[in-house]
Amino acid sequence: MAFTLYSLLQAALLCVNAIAVLHEERFLKNIGWGTDQGIGGFGEEPGIKSQLMNLVRSVRTVMRVPLIIVNSITIVLLLLFG
Amino acid sequence: MHAAGLAAPAGTPRLPSKRRVPVSQPGMADPHQFFDDTSSAPTRGYGGQPSPGGLGYPSPSSSHEAPFLADPMSNMAMAYGSSLAAHGKELVDKNIDRFIPVTKLKYYFAVDTVYVGKKLGLLVFPYLHQDWEVQYQQDTPVAPRFDINAPDLYIPAMAFITYILVAGLALGTQDRFSPDLLGLQASSALAWLTLEVVAILLSLYLVTVNTDLTTIDLVAFLGYKYVGMIGGVLVGLLFGKIGYYLVLGWCCVSIFVFMIRTLRLKILAQAAAEGVPVRGARNQLRMYLTMAVAAAQPLLMYWLTFHLVR
């Protein structure tokens, strides 16, 4: 039952890293999740798949630079304190 | 003054829009004021005191301070210091609202004893309550003090703290207690709560639900399960595992029904208001989401308490 806030932070960091690593050209296009393949009509309500694709694209765009910083800090802290 | 008196009978159809009842409560001078303002009386007393040095010391010692405080330099220094402190306080007050929405939080703590009693009763026995809609007054939801259906943060906060204490008590009776275990329980429960909130917000985003369910509302609803957990653990301490399972089972079913009835109005707004059974892919998805959220509550209630009752 050692589910602490710190392990939640670590899990969140790993998840965001995993989303950021998905390459647009080599991978997402091949499974049909590319950003140019999902735009539906304007009258339609976006389905789950297009919402997910939007989410992946937004996370990759927004979190790129902060992830570099947070990852570096985490690596340094883990090296120092285990 | 109770909301149930204004509810329509259960059989009549209801408009899909939110019910704006022009409620004129006799006790409310200002609809945006949640608490009775008693601050004027004491401050007048304090402010009215003359300040020969601004210190308010009793008169016997004032003779000692007269030569000291007559010195203009120290007078000026004291005035400057107090103005600096006031300026700092102003700055903090102005900036804290950016990070923690203090005025919004005040709404969730505007409760009184009657509300708390009725809400606790509703949490363990939601089966007879007919009207689950929150009343509105001039476009803002009515404070929890006046409407039993409004979410509040007082009960979840108190229940969370009580849960930590009861967990410590339970561990102590089994000789497994140590002070850091208490902190571990607290952060574990908080981590589960955060995870739940994030998961529900994510799924609400994915299903594109147009709801007025704010994050704080969600935290309030998810915090209500601690009440059942406390009950289960306490009875488990007194009567052993049988009592624990009985009370926990009862509270699990109650929280399940409570969450479904509350979330149905928030997530499935149109379909629920018309009373038609949910059809169509979108509504079905929302129904599944409501059921999933409600079903997660009993699971978490069991997961967070079973190790406390042996």
TrEMBL record, chain A:
InterPro entries: Yos1 (IPR013880). The keyword Oxidoreductase does not apply. Its main location: membrane. Regulator of endoplasmic reticulum secretion that acts as a key determinant of brain size. Required for secretion of extracellular matrix proteins. Required for correct brain development by depositing sufficient extracellular matrix proteins for tissue integrity and the proliferation of neural progenitors. Acts as a regulator of the unfolded protein response (UPR). One of its GO terms (biological process) is endoplasmic reticulum to Golgi vesicle-mediated transport. The chain crosses the membrane at residues 62-81. It is found in: Membrane. Residues 1-18 form the signal peptide. This is Immediate early response 3-interacting protein 1. Belongs to the YOS1 family. One of its GO terms (cellular component) is endoplasmic reticulum membrane. Keywords: Membrane, Protein transport, Signal, Transmembrane, Transmembrane helix, Transport. Pfam families: Yos1 (PF08571).
From TrEMBL, chain B:
InterPro entries: Yif1_fam. The keyword Zinc-finger does not apply. Keywords: Endoplasmic reticulum, Golgi apparatus, Membrane, Protein transport, Transmembrane, Transmembrane helix, Transport. Residues 1-64 are annotated as: Disordered. It is found in: Endoplasmic reticulum membrane; Golgi apparatus membrane. Residues 45-56 have a biased composition (Gly residues). One of its GO terms (cellular component) is endoplasmic reticulum-Golgi intermediate compartment. The chain crosses the membrane at residues 153-172, 184-206, 218-239, 245-264, 285-304. Pfam families: YIF1. Its main location: endoplasmic reticulum. The keyword Transmembrane applies. GO terms for biological process: endoplasmic reticulum to Golgi vesicle-mediated transport; protein transport. It is a multi-pass membrane protein. Has a role in transport between endoplasmic reticulum and Golgi. Belongs to the YIF1 family. This is Protein YIF1. It comes from Phodopus roborovskii (Roborovski's desert hamster).
